[in-house]
């Protein structure tokens, strides 16, 4: 679940007279009330067996452990806490944390330096898979999400670009129905309205949160079908550096360097990455360089200031479909962005003020040239009105646009920009000890479309320990992009926003500490969809499209033993107007095995048939993929790894005309200090 509040509060103290190996922890919420039934796990940093336990009625738990450790706290209704600690010399040591938003989400860790089998929850980790980008990792671990690809590396843009992300069948082409949030700011090409998938490398990513279903109340336009939020890596304590390098088939390599430090009142991190491939087909090379910087400082006990910025440049070649190959077709893209944040935290209120901006330059060999930018200001504040009632309210202003032209056809599209301003609010009420309710809404005024509203409401009920039921209904929307309004293929300035109503119910059970399962059913009505009508050259964009999406998602995670952890998920989608390339069936699976000094990951996915075109005149065959990764620690600082992708050497295509590479391998090492 996505957090509304900052993190949980844990008071950690060593009871008087106890042995040094007994650690006493007390878990409390933002209002200093104890949290019973929270699962607390401690992992020794120097190696050894993790210990865990549940907090009692007084919110405390005792663990037989001492020395440096990584402490994890998880409780239903609260955001997970992960914190590195040294055994306190003068107890108690105070750490602050808080409750989570009621929403269907998937939380994914990008990298975890601890033992892979430490917890069931940590099983979803991108670095354990063969993923090369954030979206590639989302595709491999989230059954309800699907990402199009066309080769070994490099999604590309323009006509044959891939990297289209859909969640429960919603996404669009280009991908404007799912919002990507980077470092707290909405990230999209200001003219086209879609994210840039090659920009989301793994160099600086710390965690990724996927919201399934509309999230327009908090995020506005483009969050109609869901959100992928990429949060940067922030060092926990002390100074740390990590270098990872790999090289494999098709001269495919990734090299990442992360360095950061956390002090008593501040932190900083520096990250850089280089990715490259010669490609599995002639003319499919890819190169990418990116760098990020983050820094934060506690201005007082209430206020913290922080800065996050990044820049990346990629060159991607397009070999064209095998039936009509292209020569010397490529795109050069440079993009950057930054955000300046002022956060506040008190006992009864917490939130932030964020100013941000992003910009880009696109150069494509078909003659298209563009520059774009997005600038915004967001205020978000949560207030505990009472012990059981919390209000979140805020507003944001976004101005976006740019200029484009085609130097070959001498067509100048001119400069265009749009501005929107919105206010939003959400109430969360703990109506009873086992029942929580929420309701919220957003109203946005756009300089062209006028006003748009989006409400939502839901409830979470815990009828018994380890069983949670939830229901929710909400509306999402997507504003027409500047491309659809003024550029091509058939601009129409009279277009109106698309809408989606989503209804869903979930059941989550945890019959044992080692096993968690979730079943979710959803029903979504999409209306006012923008579609291209007519035949070339007489094309027109109109709000005449509609679809009805229904489906079910099942996910399970099981730590079978201290040395084996398993996870799997299945998504079924039925639609009256299923988009091209989107599967109606998808299964993901994975297994982590600790075999002596070797950590083994075996996983993959099974993808069903998909429509090959918007007219539904042909189909793409389904496929079954497997991957294998071996990681061997060499001392305390070094790790050597090898992975094999498309382990069963399947022949398949994600999009027509672009066969995916067969079995391929990569080897590498990582150094942490």
Q: What can you see in these coordinates?
A:
The protein is an all-beta fold. It has two domains: 9-100, Immunoglobulin-like (Sandwich); 122-672, Maltoporin, Chain A (Beta Barrel), CATH 2.40.170.20. It contains three helices and 39 strands. The protein has a 22-stranded antiparallel beta barrel. The chain has a five-stranded mixed beta sheet with strand order 9-14-15-12-13, covered by helices on one side. A hairpin with a 3-residue loop joins strand 21 (330-345) and strand 22 (349-364). The longest helix is centred in the first third of the chain and has 8 residues, at 134-141.
Q: How many DSSP helices?
A: 3
How big a fraction of the residues is strand?
over 45%
> What is the CATH topology classification name of the largest domain?
Maltoporin, Chain A
Instruction: Supply the CATH class of the largest domain.
Output: Mainly Beta
Biggest sheet layout:
22 strands, antiparallel, barrel
Mean pLDDT reading = 86
Structural class, from helix and strand content? Answer: mainly beta
CATH homologous superfamily caption of the largest domain: TonB-dependent receptor, beta-barrel domain
- The assembly state of the depicted protein chains is single chain
Number of extended strands: 39
Gap between N and C termini: 32 Å
CATH architecture level-2 label of the largest domain: Beta Barrel
Segments where pLDDT lies below 50 for 5+ residues?
1-20, 88-96, 99-103, 112-123
Task: Tell me the helix content.
Answer: under 10%
């Amino acid at each position: 679940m996505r957090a509304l509040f900052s993190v949980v509060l844990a008071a950690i103290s060593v009871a008087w007279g106890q042995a040094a190996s007994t650690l006493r922890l007390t878990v409390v919420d933002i209002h200093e009330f104890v949290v019973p039934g929270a699962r607390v796990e401690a992992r020794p940093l120097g190696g050894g067996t993790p210990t865990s336990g549940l907090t009692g009625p007084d919110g405390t738990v005792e663990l037989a452990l001492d020395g440096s450790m990584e402490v994890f706290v998880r409780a239903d209704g609260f955001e997970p806490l992960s914190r590195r600690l040294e055994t306190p010399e003068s107890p108690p040591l105070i750490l602050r944390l808080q409750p989570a938003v009621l929403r269907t989400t998937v939380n994914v860790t990008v990298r975890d330096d601890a033992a892979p089998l430490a917890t069931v929850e940590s099983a979803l980790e991108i670095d354990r898979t063969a993923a090369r980008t954030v979206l590639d990792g989302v595709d491999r671990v989230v059954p309800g999400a699907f990402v199009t690809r066309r080769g070994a590396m490099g999604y590309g843009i323009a006509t044959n670009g891939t990297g289209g992300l859909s969640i429960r069948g919603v996404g669009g082409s280009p991908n404007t129905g799912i919002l990507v949030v980077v470092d707290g700011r909405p990230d999209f090409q200001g003219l086209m309205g879609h994210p840039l998938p090659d920009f989301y490398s793994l160099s600086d990513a710390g965690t990724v949160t996927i919201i399934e279903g509309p999230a327009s109340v908090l995020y506005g336009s483009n969050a109609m079908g869901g959100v992928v939020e990429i949060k940067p890596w922030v060092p926990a304590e002390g100074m740390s550096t990590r270098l990872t390098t790999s090289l494999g088939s098709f001269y495919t390599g990734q090299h990442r360097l992360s360095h950061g430090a956390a002090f008593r009142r501040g932190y900083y991190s520096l990250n850089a990455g280089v990715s490259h491939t010669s490609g599995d087909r002639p003319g499919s090379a890819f190169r990418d360089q990116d760098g990020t910087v983050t820094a934060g400082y506690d201005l007082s006990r209430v206020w913290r200031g922080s800065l996050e910025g990044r820049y990346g440049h990629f060159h991607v070649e397009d070999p064209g479909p095998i039936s009509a190959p292209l020569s010397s077709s490529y795109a050069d893209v440079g993009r950057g962005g930054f955000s300046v944040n002022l956060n506040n935290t008190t006992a009864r209120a917490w939130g932030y003020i964020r100013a941000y901006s992003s910009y880009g330059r696109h150069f494509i060999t078909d003659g298209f040239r563009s520059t774009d930018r997005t600038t915004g200001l967001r205020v978000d504040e949560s207030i505990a009105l009472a012990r059981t009632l919390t209000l979140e309210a805020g507003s944001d202003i976004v101005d976006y646009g740019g200029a484009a032209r085609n130097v070959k056809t001498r067509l100048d599209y001119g400069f265009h920009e749009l501005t929107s301003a919105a206010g939003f609010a959400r109430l969360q009420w703990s109506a009873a000890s086992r029942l929580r309710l929420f309701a919220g809404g957003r109203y946005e005024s756009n300089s062209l479309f006028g006003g748009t509203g989006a409400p939502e409401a839901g409830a979470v009920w815990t009828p018994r320990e380890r069983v949670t039921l939830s229901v929710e209904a909400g509306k999402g929307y997507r504003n027409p992009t500047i491309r659809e309004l003024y550029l091509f293929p058939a601009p129409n300035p009279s277009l109106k926003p698309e809408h989606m109503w989503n209804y869903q119910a979930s059941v989550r059970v945890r019959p044992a500490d080692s096993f968690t399962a979730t079943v979710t059913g959803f029903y979504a009505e999409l209306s006012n969809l923008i579609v291209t009508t007519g035949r070339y050259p007489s094309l027109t964009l109109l709000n005449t499209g509609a679809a009805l999406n229904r489906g079910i998602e099942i996910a399970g995670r099981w730590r079978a033993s201290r040395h084996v952890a398993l996870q799997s998920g299945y998504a079924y989608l039925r639609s009256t107007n299923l988009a091209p390339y989107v599967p109606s069936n998808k299964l993901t699976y994975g297994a982590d095995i600790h075999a002596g000094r070797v950590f083994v990951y075996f996983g993959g996915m099974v993808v069903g048939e998909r429509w090959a075109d918007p007219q539904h005149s042909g189909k793409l065959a389904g496929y079954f993929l497997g991957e294998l990764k071996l990681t061997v620690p060499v001392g305390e600082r070094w790790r050597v790894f090898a992975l094999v992708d498309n382990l069963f050497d399947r022949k398949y295509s994600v999009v027509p005309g672009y066969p995916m590479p067969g079995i391929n391998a990569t080897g590498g090492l990582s150094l942490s200090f």
